Amino acid sequence: MKLVPGSIKGRLLFWLFSFASLLLISLGFFLDNEIGDIVISSVDDLLHSQTQLIVGLLHEEHGGIELELSEIIAGEYSIPRSGHYYKVLINGEPAAISPSLVNSEFNLATGEIVSSNEKSREKIYLSVGPDNEPVRVLQHDLDFMGQQVSIFTAESLRGSHNMINRFRYVLLIMIPLSILTGGLVSLWITSKSLDPLSIFSSKIEMITHKTLNERIDTEAEAGELIGIASSFNKMLERLQSAFDAEKRLIADASHELKTPLSVIKTKCDVLLQKDRTTEEYTEALNAIRNTSGTMKKIVDDMLSLARLDSGILSSGGFQKISIKSVLENAVQLMEVPADRTGVKINPLFRDEKDTDITGDQNTLTEAFLNVIENAVRYNKSGGTADISVSNDRGHVTVMIKDTGTGIRKDDMSRIFDRFYRSEDSRSVEGSGLGLSIAKTVIEAHGGSIRAESDADKGSCFTIVLPC
Q1: Residue 121 region, left (φ>0) first, then alpha (ψ -120 to 50), else beta?
Q2: Do the domains 10-163 and 314-466 sit in the same CATH topology, yes or no?
Q3: Count of Cβ atoms closer than 10 Å to residue 349 Cβ
Q4: Is domain 10-163 annotated with CATH 3.30.450?
Q5: At residue 359, what are phi and psi to the nearest 5 degrees?
Q6: How do strand 384-392 and strand 344-347 relate by DSSP bridges?
Q7: CA separation, residue 232 to residues 128, 195, 203, 353, 433 (Å)
């Protein structure tokens, strides 16, 4: 997987690298401050210990104050400008000065006061030593035998600063190296972490319209991809169903149109073989017109299904309409065909209380018309088609019951399929799309349709719509 700006890998690497860099830089500043504090604290501890040692050497001698400096006079305090200094003042006058200070007049109490403790009578200065080096000075004042004693101890910070600078130098080298190493590790981690996604992507790319029956093995995928793989498989199932439906639609449409086209062609061929009488031409043209009407019905129904499949029917355009007005329109459109076949339509809903529903009047009229047409077409001469309406708990139920030939149990599961026509109904004119259109329209309105039937005893279609 290539590193592309804005990609998951790029963002993941950016955040890992940024977090690691921020962590290491923060750690560097923290360590630098901590080391500095530790070094300075150790210098202060040394100053306090030296000061307490000098305080311990103060004693009375012949009514005055004496200092036994033989215990501290040796060593670094005896080396000029060694960086280790002390000075003792009694009543403001020098009583003892370390040989390392060189100049007895050198004042250690100049410079910036960094801390002061009134209770212990101590002050700490940042000053400059006799070798122009930075020194840290502790001044401790006390009263001894009625006299004012001031003890100054000082330590050079040159070595401490060198130590801190070396540590900073190490940090300046180590932190960038650590950040670079962290970036490379982050790149490796992101690459390895996203490898399953690359494999998953390659599997998806191999699936085409010709291999929609293939599925992603969810058990073989990483845990984070199981949900995506499952959703993708469900999408493939929906796509496969849609493709299969389209294939069936094309095949069924071709089959349904093939017969009327053959009839038209045959009639034309027969007419063209020789001169015919006026009656023969009239008969042939009537047959061609009827066949063309069948083809037009099939094409119109296919166009209706295509519009419905495209999502043109949505609740955003629904309005309040009367269920009675929808059924009245459908009944009026079927009265003439029903009279022609000797079937009586009984609109029992006219005696019921009217109810408003939310929907599209034209498409609902078409849906009910298709169901009523089905009840009339597959009925028998002298039969009836009863239409009743009931309202219960926010739903309108419309029942269309006929006394027709009924539907066999083997055909019940497929009566709403497109172009499906049972063997018993092949002799009756129709496209096989009416019930499919009705089901699609009703479901688009949030309703449902179901059928109950007994062979030779008629059928009952129940349509439920929300108010």
Answers
A1: left
A2: no
A3: 21
A4: yes
A5: 180, -170
A6: parallel
A7: 76, 19, 11, 48, 31
16: burial class by Cβ within 10 Å (0-12, 13-18, 19+)?
middle
SS3 content of the chain, % helix, strand, coil (to 5): 55, 20, 25
d(CA 152, CA 51): 7
Task: Locate the domains of the chain by residue range.
Answer: 10-163, 220-307, 314-466
Give the separation between CA 166 and CA 143, rounded to whole angstroms. Answer: 43
- pLDDT (tens digit per residue) in 143-170: 887 788 899 999 999 988 888 889 888 8
Dist CA 415 CA 436 (whole Å): 8
Phi first, then psi, for residue 104 (nearest 5°) are -65, -20
Question: Tokens 């009583």 identify what position?
Answer: 95
Indicate the CATH number for domain 220-307.
Answer: 1.10.287.130
Give the other-Cβ count within 10 Å of 111's Cβ: 15
Torsion of Cα atoms, 197 then 203 then 208 then 212, to 10°:
-100
Judge contact between 172 and 179, C-beta under 8 A: no
Nearest to 285 by CA among 296, 297, 293: 293
What is the bridge-based pairing of β-strands 122-128 and 112-117?
antiparallel
Rounded (10°) angle between helices 361-377 and 323-341 = 30
Q: Considering only the top CATH level, what class is 314-466?
A: alpha beta
Q: How far apart are CA 168 and CA 21, in angstroms?
A: 17
Grouping H, G, I as helix, E, B as strand and the rest as coil, residue 126 is strand
402-460 tens-digit pLDDT: 988 888 887 787 888 777 666 555 445 556 778 888 898 898 888 999 998 887 788 99
The reported pTM is 0.50
**Secondary structure class of 187 (helix, strand, coil):** helix
